[in-house]
Amino acid sequence: MRSYRIVLLKGDGIGPEIVTQAALVLQKAGEKFGFGVEFEEALLGGCAIDAVGTPFPQETVEKCKAADATLLGAVGGPKWDSLPGEKRPEAGLLGIRKALGLYANLRPSMIFPQLRSASPLKDSVIGTGLNIMIVRELTGGIYFGERGRKQVDGAEAAYDTEMYTVPEIERIARVGFETARKRKKKLCSVDKANVLESSRLWRKTVERIGKEEYPDVELSHLYVDNCSMQLVRDPKQFDVIVTSNMFGDILSDEASMISGSIGMLPSASLGNGTNGLYEPVHGSAPDIAGTGMANPLATILSAAMMLRISFGEAEAADAVENAVSTALETVRTPDIWTEGIRKVGCEEMGKTVCSFL
Ligand code: NAD
Ligand code: IPM
Ligand code: MN
Fold first, then answer.
1. How far apart are CA 352 and CA 319, in angstroms?
2. What does the CA dihedral 302, 303, 307, 308 come to, rounded to 10 degrees?
3. CA 86 to centroid of chain Cα atoms
4. What is the pLDDT of residues 117-169, one digit of tens each?
5. What is the pLDDT of residue 128?
6. Ligand 2 — pocket residues by CB below 6 A?
7. pTM for the full model?
């Protein structure tokens, strides 16, 4: 029987609760579709700091490299907020993305018909639906540029640097174009080329790759401030968006809310091979951690992306997505709850998805 090795990085806050449910869903999918799943846990983030003194243990990198894919909950929390940058839990997450070469982060934002009323947007704005894929560059830009502190005119100052090389832009542009090619063949590249030099190089490079390699894909450009406005004015206009690390971080949280809750938005972080890191877009939600009320669906949908992209188990992935859709008819976690539907916690939501699988 074919079998997949999956590393679970439960992380902090609600991380362990949501990953536990997603792992059960993967197990159930395996039973139903005839493949095995072997789980191995590893430490990343705050839990790793507490256990071994670093947010990014080398052992974790080795385990992830040796596995077929990795599922992450979330890292971070107030307990570790006063640590210096490179010792924070978030440094572990940036470290693992970089170490595994995961430069492309796919963040699909779609609205399940059942959740139309959970979206803050009017029915007329949502129209017949919403299905946007944000392709976020993940291992470059201001997240990884030079940063530091210095004295300027006798005052303390801090700086972070946004820098992109042409090859970095080319490879993420290709992911954007390839993704668009499989969808509606519309790619919108988002930058701040009216101000930033790095964005001017970004735009020029994306433009060239489009002309040379993807003449069949309709390419447009938007400044990031306009894009964030357009996302709530008329989200239907977008198919695939390709953008830098920081702009993608911000726009994907905005896009998640359009779909009803950040607790619904999955993601896949990919490099050149099939091994990937699957992570919900949201964080460790310290305000609800331990209450048992977190929405596990973003993580479960991330597991579905893993089945589809890393394992080629399209049928199982479809089944998980359908089970999520059916579960939404009967139960909801508080973040997406509405009158007339039973309110449940993380565990029961996970169980319900498994029962519909
Ligand atoms: P957050 O995404 O953790 O929470 C924002 C809001 O959304 C909170 O009110 C939270 O309760 C709610 N929320 C998030 N996920 C939810 C879910 N599954 N179900 C229901 N409600 C949910 O963002 P934040 O508060 O800005 O960050 C908290 C910590 O998480 C920080 O330490 C941050 O660095 C970290 N973080 C980690 C990741 C990651 O590991 N991938 C991503 C984002 C933030
Ligand atoms: C995300 C998170 C991370 C990011 C943080 C926690 C490092 O916000 O995955 O969206 O900014 O990439
Ligand atoms: Mn984010």
1. 13
2. -20
3. 22
4. 899 999 999 988 889 999 999 999 999 999 999 999 999 999 999 999 999 99
5. 85
6. 76, 90, 93-94, 249, 281, 283
7. 0.98
What is the residue whose two structure tokens read 């508080």?
334
CA distance 274 to 130: 28
DSSP characters over 32-76 = HHT-EEEEEE---THHHHHHHS-SS-HHHHHHHHHSSEEEEEE--
Contacts of 226 (CB under 8 A, 6+ apart): none
- Domains assigned to the chain: 1-110+262-357 (3.40.718.10), 120-258 (3.40.718.10)
- With a Cβ cut-off of 6 Å, ligand 1 is lined by 14, 74-77, 90, 93, 262-263, 279, 282-288, 294-295, 298, 335
Q: Closest by alpha carbon to 299, among 272, 323, 268?
A: 268
Residue with tokens 């470059």: 140
